[in-house]
Design a protein that fits this description.
Elements (H helix, E strand, L loop, with lengths): L23 H4 L26 E3 L9 E6 L10 H13 L8 E5 L3 H13 L2 E6 L5 H9 L3 E4 L10 H15 L3 E2 L7 H18 L6 E5 L4 H13 L4 E7 L33 E5 L1 H15 L5 H13 L8 E6 L13 H8 L18
This protein binds pyridoxal-5'-phosphate.
The site of pyridoxal-5'-phosphate (PLP) has 18 residues, from α3 and α7.
Pathway: Siderophore biosynthesis
Cofactor: pyridoxal 5'-phosphate
Pfam families: PALP
Length: 371
């Protein structure tokens, strides 16, 4: 591969664009939050969504690559999913689908649920989050703390073995039973991808003045991947996207298998996916994610969530192939605090993977016995 760092056309990174694009038939009757009777979206906690820091990494890059992490965990709800949660609700308000009294219903095992719970709490909307038994107690507590109602689907879909299908069926049932329901439908809603096009990728390009060779991001709904790809296509920026998926996810084909890292991979192909969005696809295992998280904590002093550990490991594996001087960005979707009982628990790791500490601790890094 040759280095292909190229600047965006003048003004591309900073040009003003609408926060989301609405179909023409909707745009002419679009309504602002205030006009619809909601608190303004230009103030309060939702103003803090986006504009996350881009920090340099020192434990990867071999001293010949410039590597940065986009710290999406510093969004107010704790993850990148604050962006699509807000943007989908905003689009729903503008299209007249979300009004005071609307009940928002979505299937999520974590971050999207928290992002929606935050947005709905701010707007005074009721939110029902459909989860499954794999959702952590902490995430359920978080959802409830924001005032969301939590519905637990106990069994996976009998045909596919996937909880996702069972959760979506339950979402449809609930929507039929409420008079004014709204389904954000994160796997298919264009405003999910648009939030990353007009937010995540635009911010990266602006901060690096268009000189970014590679962006690595984790995939689930593919909102991040699609949004970044759309931005690059629209601005003509020659950045390569690397999609990091879970082994056992069906997004890019391959057999379905059990995945235990929340938020990474999918049991169905997202409607937002388009052919050729990623220049490369990398599959990571559950253990790759754990080891990547542990290495990032020790080498970068960054406590990041499971999918970010997968991105870190994927980058370590690919870095030999990248040309000298390449500028690389790893999108870290959330923080590690919500993974203290799993990824960062020695007992949890030992029970699932055995003695694997050598994957992150060199002999020099092992702490003495008195600790
Ligand atoms: C922790 C985590 N990483 C990665 C992703 C993938 O992001 P996207 O849905 O934009 O593909 C998600 C999505 O929920 C997530 O929660």
């Amino acid at each position: 591969m040759s280095s292909h760092s190229r600047r965006a056309p003048a003004g591309a990174a900073a040009s003003a664009k609408p926060f989301f694009d609405l179909p023409a038939e909707v745009a002419f009757r679009s309504v602002s939050a205030a006009a619809a009777g909601f608190p303004s979206l230009d103030e309060g906690v939702l103003c803090a969504v986006g504009h996350t820091p881009l920090v340099s990494l020192r434990g990867v890059g071999q001293g010949r690559l410039r590597v940065y992490a986009k710290l999406e965990g510093l969004n107010p709800g704790g993850s990148a999913k604050d962006r699509p949660a807000l943007n989908i609700i905003r689009a729903g308000i503008a299209a007249g689908q979300v009004r005071p009294g609307t009940v928002v219903v979505e299937s999520s095992s974590g971050n999207m649920g928290v992002g929606l719970a935050q947005a709905c709490s701010y707007l005074g909307l009721r939110f029902v989050c459909v989860v499954d038994p794999r959702t952590t107690t902490q995430n359920i507590q978080l959802l409830r703390a924001y005032g969301a109602a939590v519905e637990v689907v106990e069994h996976p879909d009998p045909e596919t073995g996937e909880f996702l299908h069972a959760r979506i069926r339950r979402v449809r049932e609930i929507l039929e039973s409420v008079p004014s329901g709204f389904w954000p439908d994160q796997f298919n809603h264009e405003a999910n991808a648009a939030a990353h096009r007009d937010g995540t990728m635009r911010e990266i390009a602006a901060e690096l003045e268009g000189a970014v060779d590679y962006v690595f991001c984790a995939t689930s709904t593919c909102g991040t991947l699609r949004g970044c790809a759309d931005y690059l296509r629209e601005t003509g920026l020659d950045t390569r996207l690397v999609a990091v998926d879970a082994l056992g996810s069906v997004i890019f084909g391959g057999p379905h298998a059990e995945r235990i890292i929340p938020g990474l991979g999918s049991g169905m192909v997202p409607g937002l996916l388009r052919p050729g969005l990623a220049h490369a696809q990398v599959h990571v295992t559950n253990l790759d994610c754990v080891a990547g998280c542990r290495r990032a904590a020790l080498r970068e002093a960054l406590l990041v969530g499971g999918s970010s550990g997968g991105v870190y490991t994927a980058f370590e594996r690919m870095q030999d192939e990248l040309p000298d001087g390449s500028v690389c960005v790893l999108v870290f979707c959330d923080r590690g605090e919500r993974y203290l009982d799993t990824v960062f628990s020695d007992t949890w790791v030992q029970e699932r993977f055995g003695d694997v500490a050598h994957l992150w601790q060199t002999d020099d890094e092992r702490l003495p016995a008195w600790t």
